[in-house]
Design brief:
By secondary structure, this protein is of the alpha+beta class. The protein has three helices and 15 strands. The chain has helices spanning 14-23, 66-70, 90-99; strands at 2-9, 27-29, 32-39, 42-49, 54-60, 75-78, 80-81, 84-85, 87-88, 104-106, 114-118, 123-133, 137-144, 147-154, 158-160. A hairpin with a 3-residue loop joins β12 and β13. It is elongated and about 75 Å long. Keywords: Transcription, Transcription antitermination, Transcription regulation.
Length: 161
């Protein structure tokens, strides 16, 4: 009878461990989270592991190659509960498999969010995020002399509240 087990990978080696297990004929996966971030002022979309450093592997509970899994490149060890390897219920695996491509998380402000501008011209000025202006800049609404004005600002100068 096959069961899913939780395995701890070496840091940032989930993909390497999964590929090595697949090359040995074992089924393995880890759910992926797509995030949108600002990196050096540029909008980037990255895919990262939903559970960093963890991987799920399907093995025969009686005759599975547990030693081969432990010795696979990128694998640290099995997660244990007492003396037993941690078995993951099939319902959780099915849920993660069905929802892995639909998970999107954005760490960028949305239209109408309150932000602060912090550059040489404007120090700690409150503003409202309007929209992106290319990859490196954003358009903000600020109050100048009791009038709301649009201003394009470098993303590195925006502090999210």
């Amino acid at each position: 009878m096959e069961s899913w087990y939780l395995v701890m990978c070496k840091p940032r080696q989930e993909e390497r461990a999964k590929a090595n297990l697949n090359n040995q004929g074992m089924e393995a996966f880890y759910p992926i989270l797509t995030t949108e971030k600002l990196v050096k002022g540029r909008r980037t979309v990255k895919q990262v592991a939903l559970f960093p450093n963890y991987l799920f592997v399907c093995l025969d509970s009686k005759n599975g190659p547990f030693a081969a899994v432990k010795n696979t490149r990128g694998i640290g060890s099995f997660v244990t509960y007492g003396a037993n390897y941690q078995v993951v219920p099939l319902a959780i695996i099915e849920y993660l498999n069905n929802h892995k491509s639909h998970t999107v998380e954005s760490q960028l402000p949305k239209q109408g969010d309150a932000v602060s501008v912090n550059n040489n011209s404007f120090k700690n000025i409150d503003a409202i995020y309007k929209e992106p202006d290319g990859d490196l800049r954003s358009i903000l609404l600020i109050n100048l002399l009791n009038k709301q004005v649009e201003m394009s600002v470098d993303n590195t100068d925006i502090e999210f509240s």
